[in-house]
């Protein structure tokens, strides 16, 4: 956000409300502003920057939470898949979930490698942006940026 421009307290409440509400109407009610005013603010660049930053932080927080559960979820799926006393349809679903998880992770890694290569071509010797984005999503502070 620009150093000279900041949101009003009402706009800050609106950003927070938009992050937690399911609808614009609900966000407007939580922030104690009209829907019309909220829509106006959503067309202002500074407001949008703050909203995107808040959304990014909410997503990063959710990703960190999922990462914590990842190993336990995979262990559970393996245990279910390998349990001869479990219904075969459930075992099949566990195996498919494991395969799907692996394939999605592999696809993510592939896209990240390609993105890093493109960023290296565009930005030269700077550390790849995608690597920093991933480190932030994992809650790791990067040494350089």
Please render the helix and strand layout as text.
Layout: H1 9-20, H2 24-31, H3 35-41, H4 45-82, H5 88-123, H6 129-137
Helix pairs in contact: 1-2, 1-4, 2-3, 4-5
Summarize the structure in words.
The protein folds into two domains: 1-69; 83-145. Helices cover 76% and strands 0% of the residues. The chain contains six helices and no strands. The chain is flat, with a radius of gyration of 21 Å.
Task: Provide key terms for this protein.
single chain, 145 residues, mainly alpha, 76% helix
Largest sheet: none
Distance between the ends: 17 Å
Compressed to H and E, one letter per element, the order equals: HHHHHH
Number of strands: 0
Q: Give the domain tally.
A: 2
Which structural class fits the helix and strand makeup?
mainly alpha
- Poorly predicted segments: 136-145
Strand content: under 5%
The rounded Rg comes to 21 Å
Shape designation: flat
The number of distinct helices, counting runs of at least 4 residues, comes to 6
What helical percentage do the residues reach? Answer: over 70%
Mean pLDDT: 81
């Amino acid at each position: 956000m620009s150093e000279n421009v900041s949101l009003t307290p009402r706009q800050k409440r609106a950003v927070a409300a938009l992050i937690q509400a399911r609808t614009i109407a609900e966000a407007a009610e939580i922030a104690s502003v009209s829907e019309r005013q909220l829509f106006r603010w959503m067309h202002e660049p500074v407001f949008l920057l703050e909203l995107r930053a808040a959304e990014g932080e909410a997503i990063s927080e959710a990703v960190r939470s999922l990462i914590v559960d990842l190993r336990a979820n995979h262990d559970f799926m393996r245990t279910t898949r390998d349990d001869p006393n479990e219904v075969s349809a459930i075992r099949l679903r566990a195996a498919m979930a494991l395969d799907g998880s692996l394939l999605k992770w592999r696809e993510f890694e592939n896209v990240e490698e390609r993105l890093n290569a493109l960023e290296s071509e565009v930005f030269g010797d700077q550390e790849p942006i995608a690597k920093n984005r991933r480190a932030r999503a994992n809650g790791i502070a990067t040494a350089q940026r």
